Amino acid sequence: MVHPVIKLIAQRIALGLLLLWAVSVLIFVGTLILPGDVAQSILGQAATPETLANLRAELGLDEPPLTRYLSWAGGVLQGDLGTALTNGEDIASAIGKRLGNTLFLAFWAAVVSVPLAIFLGLMAVRYRDRWPDKLISGFTLATISVPEFLLGYIAVYFLAVKWRLLPSLASIYDGMTLGEQLYAISMPVLVLVLTVLGHMMRMTRAAILNVMQSAYIETAELKGLRPINIIAKHAFPNAIAPVINVVMLNMAYLVVGVVVVEVVFVYPGMGQYLVDHVSKRDVPVVQACGLVFAAIYIGLNIVADVVSILANPRLRHPK
Amino acid sequence: MTRIPLAAMIGLFFTGAYFLSAIFAGVIAPYGMAEVVGDSWEPWSAAHWLGTDTIGRDLLSRMIWGGQTTIFVAAAATALSFITGSVLGFAAAVLGGWMDQLLSRTVDLVMSIPSLISALLILSVMPSSLITLIVVIGLLDCTRVFRLSRAVAVDITVMDYVEAARLRGEGTAWIVFREILPNALSPLVAEMGLRFIFAVLFISTLSFLGLGIQPPMADWGGIVKENKEGIVYGIPAALVPAVAIATLAISVNLVADWILNRTSSLKGGRG
To answer: Which of A56, A70, A85, B77 is positioned for an S-S bond with B138, CB 3.0–4.6 A?
Structure first.
């Protein structure tokens, strides 16, 4: 007899893999059935029918769709993402380095934003409907209402140009020490933190407030415990599953938010690479980047589900 | 008529002001959309209230024309996402069975790719015209409306009056439009505000990335892109759209909150 938790987790992971496969089909078919022709957009208006036909044959565009999907998907499984149309560069090696940079950025944003969001959420519950709560809510509403790229430029305008505190471009390269790298990415990290903080903090607050109505919280209050102890020791552990879920969703959002933030700060990551190649209509690169982003997104969602299964003690002991 | 709270009044006022200035852009904009009237990045003055932009166009006029494009695209995309999302969501709830499974799993699949990434994938093969942008944003966003309207409608379909309508022999269309829609309207209207803001942010982001509205047409994201070089020299022209987007977003949120609060007490939440 397999432990039910393991069974649940295995099911969830299998479902995730199935989803990932379906996404790969969707990405491939999606770019295939839409009107618009890759060969035409590479060659532009001046293309003759012969050059078009030649280019199509060279790119394998005249093969049947199923064959093309199988060879593409087969390549992806072996770590071969194909070559870029525009410069013939190997996509996998181009992505490898940039993915590292992107994850580096997202990682530090997560390290700062998660504890801060949870702390602010606890504070907002502790002082709910009083000024700290209202201040935190108002500030986070403002950050949610401004798109990331504008937050980025507001930060550049004040922090880099007016007060000259932080660098306005986040260029990192090999041979920098960790400290130098962290200084270089301080602004994009700040912007990413601001974009996810509001949502995470609000959801944490809501999840804890939900628990605060339980009978055991009343008991703890009647015992005379200090409010912050009640929230941190009695309410928070019971709100952990929704909190973890929202944290993971925001981590997934971070990975997408970096696309825009990288463009603002000219950071050499996946997002910049993707946006550049969308405007060049380099479909293989866009497909590969889309797949990588989708895989990270789905992966984080699976982690969220698995962690909330593990965080639920009721599931740990089979009846 | 119940009293309108102050926050909602402020929200209504600003939302109204933005929509009116979008509709009457041609009347109130002091200069033409692409008219070059001065040097680049002139400071704020009586002739140019917000100064001029990177090639000397009047920034206030650009903002008003840009607001027209942004609000029009966002409103059209929201309308599209609402019509498709709610009709499909109600249909899934009413029909149930394999239809529900098919629609719900398709929506799950589309939502498993972040919408910005999906939009970039689509825009890499399609030319970026106004229609394409509206359809792309509208359809990507209708997944969220679908989930909400399905969840709301599932609760309503089990009500006695729906059962009564079924027994009377009413068709699916009647049940969707005459029984479910009126009862599901308030959470959907509140959601519409949020979706509209999302569409504004989405189209601004795409334009900022150079993949949305194409120049010389103005839109708020594009104005940031055009003027971003000025930031380094301390010229705040690129930040003007930030104020516009943020005030629009906050005021629409205030209105949506008010609608939700006003109706949720009667109908027990958003279902």
So the answer is: B77
